[in-house]
Amino acid sequence: MIPARNVSKRIEAALKNVRYAGIEKIIVVVNGCQDDTLEVVRRLQDERMTLISFRAPLGFDVPRAIGAQYAYRQGAEHVLFYDGDLIGHHRHELKRLTEDAVRFGIDLGLTDTYGTAHHQDVAHNPLLRLRSSLNRRLGLEPRLGLSNPSHGPHVVSRRLLRLIPRADLAIPPVVLTRAKQLGLRIDALTHIPQARLGSSHKGPVHFEHIRDTIIGDLLEAHCLLDGRVRSREYRGHQFDGYHSKRRFDLLERFADSLQIEPR
């Protein structure tokens, strides 16, 4: 499934990458667009593609959760999450990711976008430090390194979608934590360096908001692992980023409209 917001110049390349990977059915969740993304997707639509459209912006990662709910309802056994602004040259890695997730029965198959990070980089970067700490505490660092579903294409299984609360699907580090707690199969299945993802650059303010969003998500995951009330606060600072703009209400309304069994 592909979330798409203001990516009219990029969505065609993203769709080509996904089609090359052999995905049988594609779900595009267009939301909150101020350009002609919706018209472009409609022009590119074929019998393999389902278009889900919202006038309102859904917020960071909520389109993933909405697409996942639809795919689950349609009986999907595995779902690839792929961003609508990715135009890099990584089709072979994407194909390997999807094929290996199915072949080896992986419930959460991740992309390693960092490779081997220097320990000083991790020590001085709070986001990387929290990622490293979470993976280490989950006992997954030897296999995942710094991989996390917040970043890079990844695949989830039907079993994962059945077991994890739908709202948590919009908070990727929480998905990782719950998957481990549930005994699901997790692995990093391919490596795509950040530069080869080909994601769009939206300026320093957007970067700071994304960073704070992911840091807050990681803090929530650590709280979940500790059995504490989930919080996005650390040393007196609230890491909200785009979190408060996540439309969990629209996610719940959409899921209810599909009459998906409660979990």
Automatic annotation (TrEMBL):
This is Glycosyltransferase family 2 protein. It comes from the Bacteria. Residues 2-103 form the Glycosyltransferase 2-like domain.
